[in-house]
Amino acid sequence: MGIFNGIIEFLSNINFEVIAQLTMIAMIGIAGPMIIFLLAVRRGNL
User: Fold this and answer.
1) What is the largest CA-CA distance in the chain?
2) Domain extents for the chain?
3) How large is the average pLDDT for residues 10-25?
4) What is residue 44's predicted lDDT score, i.e. its pLDDT?
């Protein structure tokens, strides 16, 4: 049972809100260059 308590304690200490916010910022940050790349590849025709 000791290892399970350790895992539960580890998961309860993780701040999932910060992880979600950083994930969203990364997705938004990647979306900009992706749009520019698509515009360049398709010669401006989205």
Assistant:
1) 60
2) 16-46
3) 92
4) 85
Question: How far apart are alpha carbons 24 and 18 in whole angstroms?
Answer: 10
Q: What is the rounded CA–CA span in Å between residue 28 and residue 31?
A: 5
Query: CA 40 to CA 42: how far, in whole Å?
Result: 6
Give the list of residues 6+ apart from residue 38 with CB closer than 8 angstroms, or none.
46
- The token pair that represents 34 in the structure block: 């992706």
Question: At 1, is the pLDDT very low, low, confident or very high (cuts 50, 70, 90)?
Answer: low
Read off the amino acid at residue 9: E
Q: Is 15 left (phi over 0), alpha (psi -120 to 50) or beta?
A: beta
